[in-house]
Amino acid sequence: xxxxxxxxxxxxxxxxxxxxxxxxxxxxxxxxxxxxxxxxxxxxxxxxxxxxxxxxxxxxxxxxxxxxxxxxxxxxxxxxxxxxxxxxxxxxxxxxxxxxxxxxxxxxxxxxxxxxxxxxxxxxxxxxxxxxxxxxxxxxxxxxxxxxxxxxxxxxxxxxxxxxxxxxxxxxxxxxxxxxxxxxxxxxxxxxxxxxxxxxxxxxxxxxxxxxxxxxxx
Length: 218
What we know:
This protein is mostly helical. 85% of the residues lie in helices and 0% in strands. The chain is built from nine helices and no strands.
């Protein structure tokens, strides 16, 4: 099997497995929470999902581009991406808080503020996952890139089972499980990325940041 065929098989298999695991988690949430609880859960994650999409800045694609070109050292890219995730994630949380406080009845009517605030905590963790995961792709470590995506789905399924099915924690448990799955996977991902990158310079390379944001936005 050639390299292209092998990579295609790895990607396709990983996506299929991730889909199955995601469906499994959705089934558990739907059965445990019922239609109303599932609706509240989905709405509580609606604002974070929109904010992540809007604040992504295309940094993941820029990471692959500049990493593959070797224009910047991977330890610099990794450290800068972590800080970018913290910065954009914090700004996203602040924007989400404003929406929850002043526009909740218009955007997500009927969803308690506590659920919405818990959902907002997902934003930095999800951005960090994307920014760091694509360091692996830039380094052409496709197996690690796809493997960590599958690992997140596995962790998410296990946490959902524990919080919603076994502990019966309802919507708050499902949201806590979503947050915990991102945090745990981020920790694993950062360890893997640090090893693949050959280290971590935990500072901001402003030259890389300017070029990455410009490239990503374009």
